[in-house]
Write a structure and sequence with these properties.
Elements (H helix, E strand, L loop, with lengths): L5 E6 L5 H13 L3 E6 L1 H10 L8 H8 L6 E5 L17 E7 L1 H8 L6 H11 L3 E6 L6 H13 L2 E2 L13 H15 L12
Parallel strand pairs: 1-2, 1-4, 2-3, 4-5, 5-6
Helix pairs in contact: 1-2, 1-7, 4-6
Length: 198
Amino acid sequence: MENRKRIVVAVTGASGSVYAERLILALLKLDFEIHLVFSEAGKLVFFEERELKISGDLDELFKNHFKVTSGKIISYLVKDIGASIASGSFKTFGMVVVPCTMKTLAGIANGVSSNLIERAADVTLKERRRLILVPRETPFSRIHLKNMLACSEAGADIVPPNPGFYYKPTTINEIADFIVARILNLLGIDNSLLKEWS
């Protein structure tokens, strides 16, 4: 498997599940192999906000519910610290944590690696791969901002979900796609979610 088509996506227990959903759908449509890990709270918030029934097979959920026929999802338990994505020898194109709780942000900023999400992020940084963190909704305390700075200084990209409105979005999905397009652009992945400004 070429590592350019392999990417890690982590979903933690913050509001903003629509960004995770739209990113996963975009990556599937671009035929990526998504290595997906939910925190325990992340799964609960995701299915609550998106009004979906919790399914053990996430690949099947996205393929059936959203009618996506391309790409692949491989899911992991957050406690599975020995999973493939916890090793630097497992080559990926990068990792996105969306949405990213302040607890997860703090763990990554301080190299704690107490679960698979933090460990995979730590590996992504040490291997000099792209790590994108999409923090939960505002406001941020000084501690949060310091942790964001620490992550940025370590090589991560911080992408607060602050959409632009100059392109006149009319749906929640269009608003979310603005952020997803920014994430994909940072990863160097061509996409057509937003037209180039002219």
